[in-house]
Amino acid sequence: MSNINDDPLYSKNVLEMITVANEFCLFLEEAEKYEKPFFLSYFQKICPLLYLKGSLLPVITVSDENANERFVNEEQWEIIFQSVKNILKEDDEYWHSKSVSKTELEPLKGSIAENLADIYQDMKDFIFLYQKNSRAAKENAVQECKRLFESHWGYICIQIQKTIHHLLYKEKMTDETPDIF
User: Fold this and answer.
1) What is the rounded distance in angstroms from the CA atom of residue 120 to the CA atom of residue 66?
2) pTM
3) Is CATH 3.10.150.10 what the domain over 4-170 is classified as, yes or no?
4) Domain ranges of the chain
5) Which residues make Cβ contacts (< 8 Å) with residue 126, sequence separation at least 6?
6) Which residue from 84, 96, 86, 103 is spatially nearest to 43, judged by alpha carbons?
7) Which residue has the higher pLDDT, 125 or 99?
8) Res. 95 pLDDT band, cuts 50 70 90
9) CB burial string 143-159: b at 16+ within 10 A, e below
10) Is 181 or 145 the better-scoring residue by pLDDT?
């Protein structure tokens, strides 16, 4: 039997990802308690941390793909979405480019509420699956979180960071501020 200290499923990077993911989810579940400035300030800090921890997840070989599960349903997603939308109101929507290619610069409308609800779903599913008393479930949790980081929520964390920064500091911007919006 391998030593738990050498097992990537119980590595510092995985345990720290669980901690950050849990803090992210708990905050969103109680988001209606917070005023917009505090809410934005929290996500200004947690999104880069979530991104960093996601980028450090180890590569895991899954022994049983059938042990993968999803837990957050549409109703739970909608509760988070509406809560964030109610806090941000007119500041929820923003414009972005989906591509980093110079040939595809057509702007798209994004929603911070939708983005945070999507990340919430991925993080909550990760936490619940990792908590199952099965090695295969833990393997799937880490592997799926890493896959979704690479294909989905990592990009979203970066994408909304610029908008959150703008919302927090727009009064302090001057004529010399680069035109990046």
Assistant:
1) 23
2) 0.89
3) no
4) 4-170
5) 17, 18, 21, 141, 142, 144, 145
6) 84
7) 125
8) confident
9) bbbbebbeeebbebbeb
10) 145
